[in-house]
Amino acid sequence: MDRNIALDLIRVTEDAAIATSYWVGKGNKNSADEAAVKMMRARFNSVNVDGTVVIGEGERDEAPMLYIGEKLGAGGIKVDIAVDPLECTNSVAYGRMNAMTVLSAAPRGTMLHAPDTYMDKIAVSKDAKNKVSLDADVEYNLTNLAHALGKKVKDLTVVVLERERHKKLIEDIRKCDARIMLISDGDIAGAIAPSIPGSGIDILMGIGAAPEGVLAASALLCLGGYMETRFAFRNDEERKRAKKMGVKKIDSVMKIKDLVDTDNAIFAATGVTDGPFLRGVRFTKESIITHSIVTRSKSKTFRFIEGYHVHDEVKK
Length: 316
What we know:
- This protein is an alpha+beta fold.
- The protein has 2 domains: 3-109 and 264-313, 2-Layer Sandwich (Fructose-1,6-Bisphosphatase, Chain A, domain 1); 118-259, D-Maltodextrin-Binding Protein, domain 2, CATH 3.40.190.90.
- Helix content is 29%, strand content 28%.
- It contains 9 helices and 14 strands.
- Strands 1, 2, 3, 4, 11, 12, 13 and 14 form an 8-stranded mixed beta sheet that branches.
- The longest helix has 19 residues, at 3-21.
- It is globular and about 55 Å long.
- The relative contact order is 0.17.
- Mean pLDDT is 93; it is low at 58-63.
């Protein structure tokens, strides 16, 4: 996939971010999600790919969605598409941090078809590759991470989803005297942030959604980050569904290439509200300003793009 497709995908996430930004703080997460979904679907009509959605959005809470198996694009190279039209719907609805529009694309057949269940995840930068493990305890991981980064454990910042299931994890991190950033939603950004210089985040730990793990992996392919995941099924039905979808490593640790098996993936995201490395949509008298990231693993480049959209040219 060439750089022109990468720019086309950024246009998709930009317009989706603008569309949903009008719902910030209005208490209606489904309308916010629907705005992003409709805009993404429409904008994909101008992208020269023959895309099939393999990671879709919406099933978990019956929200509007780009569904698994849906065809997107104007025709061209055959690609798998992973999409979260609005990561952190609640953050938009209630005016909180960390919402963004997200998608990735990779050659057909290279993305894991992850069921809508949970994954245990740990993600760090390339400097700590192979220094942390899902099979190790918190103290071991934070001690090794600190050594790899040339820091003291007390100087580390760990990002964790604020959930009841993470009560013990949070207690263990505090016992190590590391700093914690609790987030209400959005572990895609949490997994990517340790690999973004200046993000202020050193590691993601905890259980989050499996589809978001695949999206994060597509970005980390370019950024050189390191991530381990393992399914955390809630019941036998989810386990059976994973097997039916072709998942091979049902109970084993999976690394980035187990999730996205290619060196030619593109990841694009645009901030809706401010996050650890993306600013949210901003409005001026003449322009709507967006802040995006695009990564392209083939060229090992990532770019931040600030877009200025003249009001009259923005389709709401």
